[in-house]
Write a structure and sequence with these properties.
The structure is a homodimer.
Chain A lengths: L7 H5 L9 H9 L3 E4 L11 H8 L15 H13 L9 E4 L1 H13 L5 E6 L4 H9 L2 E6 L11 H5 L6 E7 L11 H14 L2 E5 L24 E6 L12 E4 L3 H13 L5 H10 L6 H21 L14 E5 L5 H10 L6 E4 L1 E2 L13 E5 L4 H21 L4
Parallel strand pairs in A: 1-10, 3-4, 3-5, 5-6, 6-7
Antiparallel strand pairs in A: 2-8, 7-8, 9-12, 11-12
Helix pairs in contact in A: 3-10, 4-10, 5-6, 5-9, 11-13
């Protein structure tokens, strides 16, 4: 046997909480049970054929390294896209990353040292935990509540958590996993906090285009916080191109961007074929999102209505993204979600959801909550809800105490 | 002004030493001077059209996330490729990464903690410094010498550097920047050291196919060091597909691979389009490399012959990769390389090379050395060498003390 050691951060690195249930889903499928996947944010929407065609038509002789900050032609067209959605940035404020994930890692690496703290409203995107472990950073959660639809917690809740080690507040808007869309007022509140306490504001806006109640207000639109704000972006959800791995790190803070460029140089360049795809996406017609947005809204309406019609279930209406959080009449959503895959089926079908505890940093929160991604068509969502409705009744009989 | 801080690691992060001269090259071009780029490892060889076509022909409806470890179909075919080159691995030993860069970062993150030490024969690939800063790891260089062609330093040189903090030895074989091809005996020597001192052996084999003197012997072929060895690989150079950003982390150490998978899950998946390209590349005919290898060998022969024919220049014959290190009759290769771009031209042309100090960790080493990448055709290399020959004479007159 070897005495070779795994690093402490390697041991601390969390497993994907969303993927924990995958073996049970595979077994269910092996038994012939159809599984409705509401557990992951992989849209079923077609990637626009025109942007796939742009890659096919590029006919590069040599697939070369691009500039470490991404192709300038793409950065310029991306700046135009941002201007069209009301975000006034120059191409020189943009660094193209390998997915939104790399934008977040770069931000952590460039802004924080080991032992630094970042405040994140919880529940939050689970992979922030992983990035925090990589950078040695402590995540300090500030709880938001399902009763308010996961609105921004009060300023006082933030302020009591701010220490001299606090370096940033991180938000995701509209939010994954809650679907909550922060209002302009909430964004202004965040601005006041970060200016007062000299913090970065990292804003993950992967779902910008998918807002169903009101307009999206970007952190980049906050006046007077230009040095503080970093926009972490991605084309994954916007154009249903999750596999492209193209994102962006956007900031007007030049010293920070120059620092991030050094991290970008170490990994040489972002993916080349996918940059062509990303650039082509900036040429999609203005009404491209109308259809997708209408489709997601329809699905959301079906999902939320069905959930709230079930006994003991509460699902606040999410204003954006394609996620909903629901409170279920169960003691442990982890046990329930596993049971759905291991033991339950209705007309040969079952449903897979993400147990909410994986999105909370505070132990004990979210035990009776699940996240549902409405990435299936409305008919399939109806069938998945049929399953869930029957399942909750059956599970309630088996576990009468809840 | 803002009081927002950049992290210590962000400040410590090195700039790319290879790119430092880029502004001078741009100015030279603006003056109308033709610049022969021997400074970077961007091959001019065409990416095989069949693998580009595979991407165009894939016709995916949705460009989805792949498995975090990469597509199983690709991993299986990559395992077959490894078997064909004498490396016996199963697909389950392979995790597909975003370029070789990510394989190296994953290794650093999963195996080392802040304060740990890694021993690397110098000169070495400059970006190891960046990855070390990201992971908080100390690079301990063990000098190799141009006089021996940069052969592996003696065991005693390694052993005197090994402390309780030493966690790994990192090699690149064939080597970037030296072109040195480690012999089987040298690899066995490394095995003895890592087994005796319980270290990882990270082996960066980006240039495996390009060996001109003798056979490549992979670290994965070392018997009895299966737990210690990690192969860091990439398709960038092999198929002239640097922009694809597809690499691999390969090890039979299951605990390590499971740990790396957690880092891979946090970033979701490697690039999807480029995985199709990588998979198609495993279907290229067996003789695919013959032509490319013959081409690089021809270039190397021209380059090395021309260099050694110049007064005061010494260039050991590199056994692999597409780099050569040369000792020049100059005091500072950094000054000389800048002068070549800023002040020199011969028949309207000049040459760009990488000053060697960027590849050394020990201050003062490599001051009179440069790295030349033979990524241009033989005719262009002849012309570049014409420039260099004239330049050295002219520079010698201007700086008579050297």
């Amino acid at each position: 046997m070897s005495n070779l050691t795994i690093s402490r951060r390697g041991i601390a690195m969390p497993e994907s909480p969303i993927r924990k249930l995958v073996p049970y889903a595979e077994k269910a499928k092996a038994r012939g049970t159809k599984v409705y996947h509401l557990n992951i944010g992989q849209p079923d929407i077609a990637t626009p054929p025109s942007i796939m065609k742009a890659v096919a038509d590029a006919h590069l002789r040599v697939l070369e390294y691009s500039h470490s900050a991404g192709n300038e032609s793409y950065r310029r067209k991306l700046a135009d896209y941002y201007k069209r959605v009301g975000i006034d940035v120059d191409y020189s404020d943009i660094l193209i990353t390998t997915g939104g994930s790399e934008a977040i890692i770069f931000g952590f690496m460039a802004c924080f040292d080991a032992g630094d703290e970042v405040i994140i409203p919880e529940p939050f995107y689970a992979n922030y935990n992983g990035f925090a472990v990589e950078a040695g950073v402590k995540v300090v959660p500030v709880p938001s509540a399902i009763e308010t639809g996961f609105a921004l917690p009060p300023v006082a809740d933030f302020e009591k958590l701010i220490t001299e080690k606090t370096k940033a507040i991180i938000i995701c808007n509209p939010n994954n996993p809650t679907g909550y869309l922060y209002s302009r007022e909430e964004m202004e509140t965040l601005k006041e906090i970060v200016l007062k306490h000299n913090l970065y504001l990292f804003s993950d806006e992967a779902y910008r285009e998918f807002c169903y109640e009101g307009e999206h207000f970007s952190a980049m639109q906050l006046q007077g916080a230009e040095e503080n704000v970093v926009l972490m972006d991605t084309i994954s959800k916007r154009y249903s191109a999750c596999g492209a791995r193209i994102g962006a790190f956007v900031t007007k803070n030049k010293i920070l961007l120059q620092t991030v460029l050094k991290f970008a140089q170490a990994r040489l360049s972002p993916p080349g074929l996918a940059q062509i795809l990303g650039e082509a996406a900036t040429d999609l017609p203005e009404d491209y999102f109308d259809e997708t947005k209408a489709e997601y809204k329809k699905r959301r309406d079906v999902l939320v209505k069905r959930l709230n019609a079930m006994e003991g279930v509460f699902c606040p209406n999410p204003g954006g993204a394609f996620y909903a959080m629901a409170k279920l009449p169960v003691k442990s959503s982890e046990d329930f979600c596993q049971w759905l895959l291991e033991e339950f089926s209705y007309e040969g079908q079952t449903v897979m959801m993400a147990p909410a505890p994986g999105f909370y940093a505070t132990k004990g929160l979210g035990n009776d909550e699940v996240r549902l991604a409405y990435v299936l068509n409305a008919d399939d969502i109806e069938k998945a809800m049929d399953c869930l409705e029957v399942a909750l009744k059956e599970y309630g009989k088996l576990n009468p105490k809840h």
